[in-house]
## 1
Amino acid sequence: MKNLLHAASVSLAVAMLLLAGLGSTQAQPVGTDTGPGQAAVASAHYLATEAGQEIMAAGGNAFDAAVAISAALAVVEPASSGLGGGGFWLLHRASDKLRVMVDGREVAPLAATADMFLDANGEVNRELAVNGPLAAGIPGHIAAIAHIAEKYGQLTLARNLQPAIRLATQGFPVDEKYHALMRYRAEVIRRWPAASKTLLVAGEVPELGTMIKQPDLARTLQMVATQGRDAFYRGEFAQHLVAGVRAAGGIWTEADLAAYAIKERVPISFSYQGRQIVTAPPPSSGGVALAEILNIIEPYSIGSMDRTVQVHLLTEAMRRAYRDRGIYLGDPEFVDMPIRQLISRDYAAGLRASIRLDRATDSDALAGFQDSPKGMDTTHFSVLDKDGNMVAATLTVNLPYGSAFMAPDTGFLLNNEMDDFSAKPGAPNAFGLLGFTANAIAPGKRMLSSMTPSFVFGDDRQAALGTPGGSRIITMVLLGILDMIAGNEPQSWVSLPRFHHQYRPDLISIEPDAFSPELISQLQAMGHTVEARDSTWGNMHGVLWKYADNQVSAASDPRWPSGRAVVKPAAD
Ligand code: DON
């Protein structure tokens, strides 16, 4: 019934818009005033998707759902995100078209120094940079979701945290991702009793289907639900957390937690072939790099060209954008960045002029410098509510299970986001990314990210998408956006075979079987090196609302079976 009523009100709105638009040649947005009347959630875990649906059915909007999903993912996907990590939440409020990014990125502790990961020979100690509490930045997850609930939600933080508290108390079954990533990290997890007790079974990787209950995490979440975000960042809990970190060799102080603040940032926004792309600004490199790439390729009919030339042009655009990422980008509070220039069409025209259509550019021929593991940790979700509000959020603890360190009684792992800084100019991090002074470690500074939660708006549609995948996030979002603009549905964006170039190493890496043997040899003949990886990467989740027929669709990446996308009529 509700749907029929909704359809009727949409047609009325359409008729009114048509009347209002008489004599105008401008296409009119249709249906945006009324909202789709349906809600969509796509996330990396079915229990988190259910948490989002539960909250919207209880009267919450997309922002409440985002809080519930973020908290639920922190419980059921400890490899990927959590209370000890951070992320970027991109919000679109339909009522006034407000678009804002809530930056809950970790910051370096106040006692951090530029050379804190260098050994006596000046080499980066990779062990310290990724394992244990020294690798952890001050977490922003709780501060961000509390802010979103308070400022944008309709329900209380406590209500939004309920599904997560239930999941932490009652447990969830170990899935393939938990299992696979834990096999890779168990040796480090075993070093810390709280982590081992919570996430392993008698010190061993739990079997598929084992129920993981997290009573300490349930207690911490319940504390935040009852007392608010300050209970996490100040007072007794903060003292205990800091004591645990320091006892294990970390350098956090209570002042670090007390000083943590989220930032509301103006997104990077630009147009590409008549669509508005709204995406992550620094301290993520994603939006700037995406703008650079799309500006470079805009004059070409990229969708309809020969596949070899298409891959070649995209690769050359990726190469140039990743070079600039490494040279210029960092925390806007610490670094002056030529953002306006980097995302300008004139700058892109200069870069385009340096691309030969028949030949690969040697990365060495461009002044300046980067590799990467697979995109399995970190997480992304996309939400659309019945009113047209949207959230695209990418959250992380960095590498699988973060630093693997858990302070006693707290229930959550700390991130190893400090490795997203450049520990030494030109030395690669876990993703093979090289950085220089713009991304050097400094007290209170946010480490440069590649996370790229994004929206696309057109006259006839709006969409949200994003993915984990370290340095490859940006190129995955790029390919997804191009597929969307070609008119395809979310299922297609999230399933596309992926390829990636990040300037250094100078090669196109591809998912298994992403390119035909002919395509590979044609690219090689142009001077490209093509490297097929032995596994896929990424875990993309997207939602789409097409105004004309009020069609809402959503999809979760088929690469990981626990993901779930659901579209539902709004609850009556
Ligand atoms: O912020 C970043 O760019 C990284 N910490 C994200 C890590 C990630 O996506 C890991 N997944 N493969």
## 2
Amino acid sequence: MSGTGWRVQVHTVKRIGIFGGSFDPVHAGHLLVAAAAREEAKLDRLIFMPARQSPFKSGQPLASDGLRLRMLRLALAGCEWASVSDLELRREGVSYTVDTLRILRRDLPDARWFFLIGEDHLARLPEWREADALGRLVEFLIIPRPGSPGDEPPAGFQWHWLTGWPLGVSSSQIRQRVREGRPVDHLVPPPVAEVIRYNRLYLA
Ligand code: ATP
């Protein structure tokens, strides 16, 4: 689902999670975390929100916006509680979470909003654009990540730790494996592996 379509489908939803990231490509770690967040935070819906340009990553994602969207849609096909939004992809420039949340909350003011954040991003949360406002707009669901220091969340934010299921996989690892000609089976869903192969992604 994309564009404004999600509004129609979530009009009765009360607890909504946003999972932002580059998803270049989406992988098994993302999907396990999504399932854990849905269960542990009792989310009615989880919206995957691929960023056009992350404020904390230098350079553009390697795969095009369209292919990152396609991989996400294929990975989530048949999953009725998850959807994919192209809201940030349609906005020019850097994708700031606070802007996205303001738009979403305007459309669904009565929902309770959660934002998934990897433990690895926690320390820099106060540097996020309009961090004070952000802290009032959303509750953070912290994703445990193997190898992360287990920092306490910074003050001024509402947060809940998730427990399931830390998996030491990253998109950079997947891209590196593809570049080296190594298999990525089971690290990404089969249709995603197919998109990577067919479009010759991440070879250079
Ligand atoms: P890259 O390796 O390119 O930096 P990434 O694997 O971290 O990418 P992103 O799409 O940038 O993936 O991440 C989106 C969100 O998912 C971030 O909050 C990140 O911390 C989280 N995340 C990514 N991989 C995992 C994983 N294996 N387990 C838990 N959380 C993850």
